[in-house]
């Protein structure tokens, strides 16, 4: 099978198209013929080993997982002897987590990490959902505890997670303010945002509106600025993201660490977000999609051999919404 592999950290040029053996599913795994995969900020972080502190877990000189990519959608080709809920021919989607391997023609996945793909979405749209969708879902519903009537601000509303977060916040009954650049104002508004702040023209931290929940998907503002737009007992949810700016030691982890240190001493809740893959969350995303409440927005689609160019586009702050790979 063809796959995108990487044998050392570095720029997109370190990614190459290679011929590998088709994997064989273990007893608890399914073999998926990948039809589409999606890019996330995680992918360029893993590709470059950035921030460098993350190499302690990803691998010191090269990623432990040789084949890149987390999110996928496709058809089940074969199942292991212990698999009970998935059958050959099923359309599925999922997130491989830190195991990676989605930028390939085939991938073996634990049965617990796949779910039936939304019936009303293409494979490309379904692939765009797992990591970004689960991040948005957990950040709003579980960590932010968003309820009907809450006021929610999303910093990074036009990104892969942000475009899904706007829709999910509206589905949860919130009044949504999205922060984005000028060219993305109409997009964010079309997704249901009640208010849109163009950060090139105004500073959302100086806005008079106060919010019950702030979901920060960029990591480009201080804790002081983010807390300023919260109600006295509001919740600040910190996630990763960002774009490549030449490498760093700790990256967005520094803001998250400062948030954890400050949290015990303020009335406002400061919480961090780590999205874990799993079928239960995928089932929730599928339900929202099939009900018409959640539709992934795709910016660009690339063929498998152009994954390096796709990541170059993503990490340079040019992308909006999702970038997808057709396999």
SSE inventory with pairings:
Layout: E1 2-6, E2 15-19, E3 29-38, H1 41-48, H2 55-58, E4 71-79, E5 91-95, E6 106-110, E7 114-116, H3 123-127, H4 130-143, E8 151-155, H5 160-171, E9 175-180, H6 185-190, E10 195-198, E11 211-216, H7 223-228, E12 230-238, H8 253-262, E13 269-272, H9 279-290, E14 298-303, H10 307-315, E15 322-326
Parallel strand pairs: 8-9, 8-11, 9-10, 11-12, 12-13, 14-15
Antiparallel strand pairs: 1-2, 3-4, 3-6, 3-15, 4-5, 5-7
Helix pairs in contact: 4-5
Number of helices: 10
N-to-C series of helices and strands: EEEHHEEEEHHEHEHEEHEHEHEHE
The assigned structural class equals: alpha/beta
Mean pLDDT across residues: 91
How is the main sheet built?
7 strands, mixed
Helix content: 25-40%
* Total strand segments: 15
Fraction of residues in β-strands: 25-35%
Distance between the termini: 11 Å
Name the poorly predicted regions.
243-250
Gross morphology is globular
Radius of gyration equals 19 Å
Give a verbal description of the structure.
Strands 3, 4, 5, 6, 7, 14 and 15 form a 7-stranded mixed sheet that branches. Strands 10-9-8-11-12-13 form a 6-stranded parallel sheet, with helices on both faces. Helix 4 (130-143) packs across helix 5 (160-171). With 327 residues, the chain is of the alpha/beta class. Helix 6 links the parallel strand 9 and strand 10 (195-198). The chain is built from 10 helices and 15 strands. The radius of gyration is 19 Å and the shape is globular. The model is unreliable at 243-250 (pLDDT under 50).
């Amino acid at each position: 099978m063809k796959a995108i592999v990487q044998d050392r950290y570095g720029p997109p040029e370190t990614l190459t198209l290679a011929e590998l053996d088709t994997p064989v599913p273990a007893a608890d795994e399914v073999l998926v013929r990948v039809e589409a995969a999606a890019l996330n900020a995680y992918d360029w972080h893993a590709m470059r080993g950035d921030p460098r502190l993350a190499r302690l877990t990803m691998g010191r000189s090269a990623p432990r997982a040789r084949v890149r990519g987390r999110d996928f959608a496709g058809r089940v080709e074969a199942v292991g002897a212990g698999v009970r809920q998935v059958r050959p021919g099923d359309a599925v989607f999922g997130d491989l987590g830190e195991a990676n391997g989605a930028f390939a023609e085939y991938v073996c996945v634990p049965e617990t990490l796949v779910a039936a793909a939304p019936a009303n979405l293409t494979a490309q749209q379904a692939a765009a959902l797992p990591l970004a969708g689960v991040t948005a879902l957990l950040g709003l519903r579980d960590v932010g505890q968003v309820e009907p009537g809450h006021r929610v601000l999303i910093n990074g509303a036009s990104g892969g997670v942000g475009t899904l977060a706007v829709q999910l916040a509206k589905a949860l009954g919130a009044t949504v303010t999205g922060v984005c650049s000028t060219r993305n104002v109409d997009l964010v508004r079309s997704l249901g945002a009640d208010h849109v702040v163009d950060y090139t023209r105004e500073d959302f931290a100086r806005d008079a509106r106060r919010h019950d929940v702030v979901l920060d998907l960029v990591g480009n503002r201080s804790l002081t600025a983010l807390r300023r737009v919260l109600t006295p007992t509001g919740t600040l949810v910190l996630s990763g993201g960002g774009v490549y700016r030449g490498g760093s030691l700790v990256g967005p982890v520094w803001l998250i660490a400062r948030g954890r240190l400050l949290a015990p001493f303020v009335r406002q809740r400061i919480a961090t977000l780590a999205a874990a893959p799993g079928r239960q969350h995928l089932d929730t995303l599928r339900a929202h999609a099939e009900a018409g409440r959640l539709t992934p927005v795709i910016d660009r689609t690339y063929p498998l051999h152009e994954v390096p160019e796709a990541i170059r586009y993503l990490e340079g702050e040019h992308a909006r919404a999702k970038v997808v790979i057709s396999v």
